[in-house]
């Protein structure tokens, strides 16, 4: 145990954010650079080294949290990095983007603020990169087997890295012009600067992984050609079909899916555009959807100079404390104020959009909504609560409904689907098609980044065993595993 009295003598302290008036003028990460290292060792010392560390259960990766907390407390950063990478290929991604179910399951969190596990994680990996402790790990020998990975999000990258290190020749196919999937174009720069993706890609290249961009399997290359070329295929194409809002006026100009809006802002940061083709500058912006993607739209609109930003959520406002029906160590639904919400805008709960209103040129100019409640599991509108709000840009951030089938990938492979429309798989993450496996949101449905990486690692074991008859690769989860709930 690092500090036997740490949880008694040290209070929770988290990363400091830059002043709002400063950070909305740029696209850099919102946190003060270097602000964690002076405090993080003491924060790691709050870990109680529990006999049964429920943080392990909260994280699908099975991160060895008490171990790297102990090393961080002692400032043995190299050992901490080794323990961190033992279960997680990309801790700099999860340390920035994961909502930290491990902290919700922290034993200290029963009656005190939980250990700042996420901040400790990102401090360790950033220190490791700065110290040169993150190096390529090429295989000692090659197996002679080849694997294609479709999709370069966190699941695809994790599977590719694991299989490359196991000695297989791996090629990652990505339909976008850059590697990273939603990490690249779905996550704004202010949440994770893309340098973190770029240096991981370079590490993977040095290990032997190959990458092919602007190749969409099913459209640019037929599935049968891919199967003939490779000994195994991993489908890690994500759950990329956005949930639509079929109400009157949906066809008006200025109404876009979040994943039409956010990538363009990222492309400006990549140098592809001087200004984004879809911009919030000077406009009244309405974001429909109260989740993390909606918050990303809010923060992006602030930086583009929106006249106003309103975020709508159909569900009631969550509470500030755990509900009795969401006991520890489950992940509770709490009212969350992200960095984007700190920057301004209005959040409106328990409302539903009835229709959009346009001008004479076919552009959206207003949104009509009504207050709603749930009675016996049914959505009920409250009479007399209708109102109109100005809206010159509307982003739909209501989640995703499944794998993209428009490119023919599912049909060309002949993949079976489950009752939710995800690609079905067995205990080894294998599909109904011999040699074809599935990992990430394509098989699980929309989920968290930690689940995506865990899926990629687990699917890699299934592929390795298929190719060689046995595997020493770890498999942190089963396809049927789900987050701890009641």
Automatic annotation (TrEMBL):
Q: Does the keyword Amino-acid biosynthesis apply?
A: yes
Domain Dihydroprymidine dehydrogenase: from-to ranges: 39-131
Which keywords does this Swiss-Prot/TrEMBL entry list?
Amino-acid biosynthesis, Glutamate biosynthesis, Oxidoreductase
Pathway in which the depicted protein is active: Amino-acid biosynthesis
Asked whether the UniProt record includes Oxidoreductase among its keywords, one would answer yes
Q: What is any Pfam family matched here?
A: Pyr_redox_2
Chain ranges of the FAD/NAD(P)-binding domain: 146-456
Q: Which NCBIfam families match?
A: GOGAT_sm_gam
Name of the protein: Glutamate synthase subunit beta
